[in-house]
Amino acid sequence: MGDDEIVVAVDGSAPSLAATRWAAVEAARRDLPLRLVHACVPAPRPYPRTREEQVALFHALPDHGRTWLREAQGLAERTCPGVVVRQDLRVGHAVAVVVAAAERAVLVASGARGLGGFDGLAVGSVASGLAHHAQCPVVIVRDDRFPVAAEPIVVGVDGSAAGAAALAFAVGEAVLHGVDLEVVHTWSPVAFPDMWAVQPLDADLADLAAREESLLRRLVEPHRVAHPGLTVRTVVVRDRPVRALLDRAAGARLLVVGSRGRHAHPGVGLGSTSASLAHVSPVPLAVVRAASTSDNENPVWREHERDGLQRTEES
């Protein structure tokens, strides 16, 4: 299996089919094959109790899986005629199976919740598990709403290495689909560089806002230079990240975030922002992981933070 394909977790649910449709469009745009993966989950040890039940279950699980894979393949081919679709039926627990199938994939897509979910459940265990453990970008699709051509890509950045990876992914998506990119950065007078800390009570909030705007310009500038035809709008707002991103996502085709921010401990799969958005994002959500780094910080952020500490000491 190569690394030039898109993987979809398939389980026969409506969100799974929505993810298949989304991924088919993505695969067609990228001219990549689409791999549909279904995991036949082993039965709990106490069941089945008789040999006849064992045989029946042994045949039933793959039969269901093949039916759902055929349904998903038909949908993908109707959505994007000509896209190459591969079926992949495996035995094992869903998260482990899909993570293994997507080990070298470009991205993996999953419905927000599967057949095992209940009414009112925002995100299921498989989508959450993939966002925590897959090494490639994970796109969580909630419903079958098809994007409008003019809808932008929205990405949240925070100075972390994962935020930089999210920005690079979002730029690629905006260029691929020929849409605008909106880059959102939030800030607060309460800061946590290496420990709990706050800005001085007499801090100039206008000066803090100007510093954050400068940081965002420096993060975005290399992408502006690399893609001069891309329309990039930057938004700096004093707010909580989840609330600000939800406000901007209302009119977006895709929301992109890093898997964890600067303050999450090393080894944490998802930070609070990405975990919260997985539950409430009204549009497809891409969770992007950075290459392994010791502190998850972007060098631009380190320089920005040193400059801020120097200003505080001088004042």
From TrEMBL:
InterPro entries linked: Rossmann-like_a/b/a_fold (IPR014729), Universal_stress_UspA (IPR006015), UspA (IPR006016)
UniProt cross-references to Pfam families, sorted A to Z: Usp (PF00582)
Domain UspA residues, every copy: 6-142, 152-289
Compositionally biased spans, kind Basic and acidic residues: 300-315
Region of interest (Disordered), ranges: 291-315
Domain of life the protein comes from: Bacteria
Gene3D superfamilies: HUPs
Family: Belongs to the universal stress protein A family.
This protein's name: Nucleotide-binding universal stress protein, UspA family
Annotated organism of origin: Actinokineospora terrae
